[in-house]
């Protein structure tokens, strides 16, 4: 008898460790497991799996969710600056299904009944999130400001959506591409590396900013075989004007923006037509280039990481990358990762033909 009791106790412990329940929807019964994910703040959230309803309060997250083929799970969220042209091409029903809500509207978030909320880590102390957590809704805080953080985000998404093998496939692809670029640029001498200003137009503030310190765009330029003129600034987005740009006098200017309404090509046009910029070397020599934009700027850490890296490297060193066809690479990635034709996407920018 004692033996049976011991065996029965072991069985109960085993079943409890599986952390599995069943939920009935209509006449359908589905197994619901729990997934534990530790985010960038060090907090661990327990999430129902499979995830069916996602709220994103971080503009970089929706494209990544689509990269995992789970875009139809998003019930609220928008891309950076509300620019969703690429997602709209991939999923024409996105804006109908996904609400554009304020991140601090707890009642509206609650009404959506999400399985998980993705939010930026720098907002983790904002008042709405403790309230949301108090309602039993898991909040996963993300920080995508470095390549290593992006890889970690992919791993976390793999855990959340139960696609760990696919997450590793993506990371392997990014590493392979990065290593190819680094191997090529390793042969470039310091004298051959152009001094580059990465210039971003902030439509909300009607001003320019450039990356400081270890901000990703500076690392992008370095990996691609350039020298960033703003590396000595504090890490982050540094507001600049034409006087500061003139004092640096860069050899190359790469323009960027985050809306199709005011894309990188328009920023480039503004620079070329402004007399204040005309004496800067990059402008005088015609070395001002618009970063490609397809609803997502290719200089952000996200699904277009490889495209942005090869584009920047080829723009700075075209002869070294004569074998890289940016348009073909773009078409291949669109079809491989998003099942969308390049003909269905609005793509603007330089050096993509």
TrEMBL record:
For this protein, the record's Pfam families field holds: Peripla_BP_2 (PF01497)
Check the record and name the InterPro entries matching this protein.
ABC_Transporter_SBP, ABC_transptr_periplasmic_BD
Give the Gene3D superfamilies listed for this entry.
Answer: Nitrogenase molybdenum iron protein domain (3.40.50.1980)
- PROSITE patterns per UniProt: FE_B12_PBP, PROKAR_LIPOPROTEIN
Question: Where do transmembrane segments lie in this chain?
Answer: none
Q: What is this protein called?
A: Iron complex transport system substrate-binding protein
Provide the Fe/B12 periplasmic-binding domain boundaries: 53-324
Query: What domain of life does the native source organism fall in?
Result: Archaea
């Amino acid at each position: 008898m004692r033996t049976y009791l011991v065996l029965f106790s072991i069985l109960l412990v085993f079943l409890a460790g599986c952390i599995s329940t069943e939920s009935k929807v209509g006449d359908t019964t589905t197994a619901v497991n729990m997934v534990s994910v530790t985010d960038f703040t060090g907090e661990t959230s327990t999430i129902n799996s499979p995830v069916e309803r996602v709220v994103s309060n971080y503009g970089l997250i929706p494209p990544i969710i689509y990269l995992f083929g789970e875009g139809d799970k998003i019930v609220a969220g928008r891309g950076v600056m509300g620019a969703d042209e690429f997602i709209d091409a991939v999923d024409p029903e996105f804006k109908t299904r996904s609400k554009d809500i304020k991140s601090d509207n707890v009642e509206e978030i609650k009404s959506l009944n999400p399985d998980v909320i993705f939010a930026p880590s720098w907002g983790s102390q904002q008042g709405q999130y403790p309230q949301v957590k108090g309602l039993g809704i898991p909040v996963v805080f993300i920080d995508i400001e470095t390549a290593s953080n992006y890889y970690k985000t992919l791993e976390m998404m793999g855990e959340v959506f139960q696609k760990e093998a696919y997450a590793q496939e993506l990371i392997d692809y990014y590493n392979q591409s990065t290593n190819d670029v680094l191997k090529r640029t390793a042969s470039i001498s310091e004298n051959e590396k152009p001094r580059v200003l990465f210039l971003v137009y902030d439509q909300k503030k009607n001003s320019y900013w450039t990356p400081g310190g270890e901000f990703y765009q500076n690392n992008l330029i370095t990996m691609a075989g350039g020298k960033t003129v703003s590396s000595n600034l504090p890490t982050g987005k540094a507001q600049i004007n034409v006087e500061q740009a003139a004092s640096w006098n860069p050899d190359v200017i790469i323009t960027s923006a985050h809306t199709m309404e005011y894309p990188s090509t328009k920023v480039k046009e503004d620079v070329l037509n402004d007399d204040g910029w005309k004496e800067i070397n990059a402008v005088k020599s015609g070395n001002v280039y618009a970063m490609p934009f397809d609803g997502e700027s290719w200089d952000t850490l996200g699904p277009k990481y490889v495209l942005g890296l090869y584009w920047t490297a080829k723009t700075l060193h075209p002869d070294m990358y004569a074998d890289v066809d940016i348009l073909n690479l773009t078409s291949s990635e669109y079809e491989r990762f998003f099942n969308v034709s390049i003909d269905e996407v609005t793509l603007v920018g330089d050096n993509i033909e």
